[in-house]
């Protein structure tokens, strides 16, 4: 059968040979309503080199794209920039098929690939700053541990002024367009921010250091070629500045109110808090976990200054939808937030205290006294909720005026 997939030229010597996953909707808890791509790249040097592979079920698509340029048996080197299985899932089969002279990964990458696939002893470790000659050009490696796994590294191809950035600057967005400049900026920003919030956020301090480290190399970079989503070949400063903004997590005059409700009491409280915040000039996002996915919550929290959480008490606990989102948020470590808790109860009433414990564990500064009500809030309780909103608003205005 004739191969139906084609490579896409990225630069003088580099082709995109990845795969488009139009149907994936979940990435370990992060919803991906617009699918994703797994980007692999072919460097047509004297020593033909494949940068990363793809998720296992997409190997044939990748090989088909490679074949549109060269017989895969001509590949001499494979570089694994990131060993997570969306980029290495088919690596053992590709090694068997291609029989490259050498496969390279970071020091941590060789360990991780062995733990994932076992008996990958032929993988050669490269150190931070090491170079590899491909004959008529060379690659330089830079460790970027924890962006997004301990094994992660960037690879720089000076000849084409191109940085293979694996997960960094990526997004989960399945498109036929291969370049960011072919896509609407608003969608790019939304998808990149959602990806950052759901994948990269916990490593924000490391991201800032990595950006400095790349700048310190003096590399002349004209193209970012990430492992997901479109390739950046114009206005790289735009995505770099967004990364700096998201990674620095400076407080803003925005509050995210997240709640779940049983019989609308907690919902009434959430609305009273939100209205008071908005009246005080704060941008508000009100999200009911009865209807909202956790991924959207962390996207909204990415550029917020306050997180206010509410739940009724169910069987001495918070509602399971709230436990879900609090677990997810805690793991993603949003920083520099103030917050408060609220909720209703029928008899035992543990939920509000429990939510305060969650917030404190997340290092959210409690900036207003919690509001808790037995059964349905009356106008006095709703006034207390409004006071909570006003107090958070005043603190946000004070903090953002000083930042
Ligand atoms: Fe796209 Fe961390 O893998």
Task: Please explain how this structure is put together.
By secondary structure, the protein is α/β, with parallel strands linked by helices. The chain has two domains: 8-248, 4-Layer Sandwich (Metallo-beta-lactamase, Chain A); 254-394, Flavodoxin domain (Rossmann fold, 3-Layer(aba) Sandwich). The chain is built from twelve helices and 24 strands. The protein has helices at residues 59-67, 85-88, 91-98, 107-117, 185-200, 204-217, 236-248, 265-279, 294-302, 320-332, 351-361, 379-402, and strands at residues 8-9, 14-16, 19-21, 26-27, 30-31, 36-38, 41-43, 49-51, 77-80, 102-106, 123-126, 131-133, 138-143, 153-157, 162-166, 223-226, 254-259, 283-288, 306-310, 313-314, 317-318, 338-345, 365-366, 371-374. A seven-stranded mixed beta sheet has the order 1-2-7-8-9-10-11. Strands 17, 18, 19, 22, 23 and 24 form a six-stranded parallel beta sheet that branches. Helix 5 (185-200) crosses helix 7 (236-248). The longest helix has 24 residues, at 379-402. The radius of gyration is 24 Å and the shape is elongated. Bound molecules: MU-OXO-diiron. Residues 82, 84, 86-87, 148-149, 167, 227-228 line the site of MU-OXO-diiron.
CATH names the topology of the largest domain as Metallo-beta-lactamase, Chain A
Distance between the termini: 62 Å
Question: How helix-rich are the residues, as a percent range?
Answer: 25-40%
Q: What is the CATH architecture annotation of the largest domain?
A: 4-Layer Sandwich
**How large, in whole angstroms, is the Cα Rg?**
24 Å
How many independent structural domains? Answer: 2
Low-confidence stretches: none
Provide the β-strand percentage band. 15-25%
Strands side by side in the biggest sheet? 1-2-7-8-9-10-11
Count helical runs: 12
